[in-house]
Amino acid sequence: MITLILLNFIASLTMLGVILVTQIVSYPMFLNVSKQGFTLFHSNYVKRISSIVMPVMTIELILSVILFFTLEGILSQISLITLLLIFISTAVIQVPIHEKLKFKYDEYLTRKLIRTNWIRTSLWSIKSLISYNIIVKELL
Fold first, then answer.
1. Nearest of 50, 49, 85, 43 to residue 64 by alpha carbon
2. CA atoms of 80 and 86, how far apart (whole Å)
3. Which residue of 12, 15, 81, 100 pairs with 131 in a disulfide if CB–CB is 3.0 to 4.6 A?
4. C-alpha–C-alpha distance, residues 119 and 5, integer Å
């Protein structure tokens, strides 16, 4: 159980780091890419970031579900709910914007992507704090 709790914390912190870099560095840089080079840039970005994000998010989901069913208390429940909200935001808001941006640059959509990504940034911050609190409660 200790290993699962620590892996959950590591996965949460990893995704917090990724989402912070995405929010503060990567997405704002979309505004500086030339219109002519945007679709190639965006396509490369999505492929590369997905190779990091998809496996870690999958691991994080598996760990959160296991902890939900094995730990008593509300922390594991809130952790899973928070992660599910991240998945919903990704599927309902961010992925559809990326799907539109893959065909052509659109400043409005890019700014919307930056604004709405604060949802995931905030949720992963919360998820990381909850994961830390699970460590404190269960291991210390």
1. 85
2. 10
3. 12
4. 24
Alpha-carbon span 72 to 90, nearest angstrom: 28
Block residue for tokens 């998945």: 87
User: Domain spans of the chain?
Assistant: 2-139
Structure tokens at 60: 């994080």
Q: Residue 34 is encoded by which pair of tokens?
A: 């030339």
pLDDT by position in tens, the chain (length 140) = 899 999 999 999 999 999 999 999 999 999 999 999 999 999 999 999 999 999 999 999 999 999 999 999 999 999 999 999 999 999 999 999 999 999 999 999 999 999 999 999 999 999 999 999 999 999 88
Determine the Cα–Cα distance for residues 24 and 29; give it in Å rounded to an integer.
9
Q: Is 125 exposed, middle or buried, given 0-12, 13-18 or 19+ CB atoms closer than 10 A?
A: middle
Give the residue from 15, 7, 134 showing the smallest Cα distance to 83.
Answer: 15
